[in-house]
Every structure is written in structure tokens, then in C-alpha cells.
Amino acid sequence: MATSLKAIFFLASALCFLSLLGIVHAESTPQFFVEGKVYCDNCRAQFVTRISKYMEGAKVRLECKDLEGGKLTYFVDGETDASGTYRLKVEGDHEEEICEVALIESSDPECSEIDKENYLRKSARVSLTKENGISSDSRISNPLGFMVKERVPECTEVLRELGITAGGLV
Description:
By secondary structure, the chain is an alpha+beta fold. 19% of the residues lie in helices and 38% in strands. Strands 1, 2, 5, 7, 9 and 10 form a 6-stranded mixed sheet that branches. It starts with a helix and ends with a strand.
């Protein structure tokens, strides 16, 4: 009887201790890692092609803005590595905000144009909350591209391979 009472007491103590650990973990500030790539759009196609080049040293910024008034609530800057990849560490949960990664500065003066057309999205939106069903702390954003001033001659063939011609889709 005394042995079973000790076992029950031990199990109850262990359960309380594990519950406290869960509370401490739940109250810690969420942390995310946003990853993406920056490329040189040498065909001015505004998507990655087989001849696109990923850019080392390009600068990007993640900005989170309030849903209501659009006020800037958080930002972090980053730079791409040799593979054209950036990895931004983000502190906090941003459920009530719109967060986007945008191009800041190109590392290549020959490929530094950002298209100014109104209909184009110039950033990659990411969801930075634990309340969206994504269990991982990593978030992957869409690739972002700087453009060359004049497309390279190989682009005609590359785009034809994709079914795109001067007249539109094949």
C-alpha cells in the first residue's frame, strides 16, 4: 500500500512538473526564420528561368504592417549568401499584421532594376504566426528578382521552350 501511494505521489509530481515546463515554453516569444532567394531576371520575364542567376550580396527587408492603418510595426534587413539565399530571424507573432519581404539593393549594377508597374507585386508575403496551422518555425517566401535593362539574346529560345512567344502563349 505504501509503495503504491509513493508511486501515485511520484507520478502526480512528475505530471505537475511537466505541466509547468509546458507553460514556460508556451509563454516564450515566438521566433521564425524567413528564407528566400534573390535572382537576376536576365530575360525580364519576372519569373525564374533556366538562365536566371542567383545573386550574392543583394539586400532585402522584411516589413510587417498593422492590418488596420498600415503602420510599420516590425522590420528586419538581410543579405543573400553565395547561393542567393537570405535567412531572416523574426521575433514575435505577427498574426494581426501583413508581413512582406522586399528588394532593397542589388549587388550587381548591371542587374538592379525593380519593375515599377502598378500591377506587379514587388514583394513576397509571408505568414508569421503560430495560429495558421504551420508547425515549423521556417517560412519560405517566393523568389524576388532584379532585372537587367536589356534582356540577353538567349531569352527568345528559353521563353519559346516555356511556350511563350512575342505574340503571347503558344
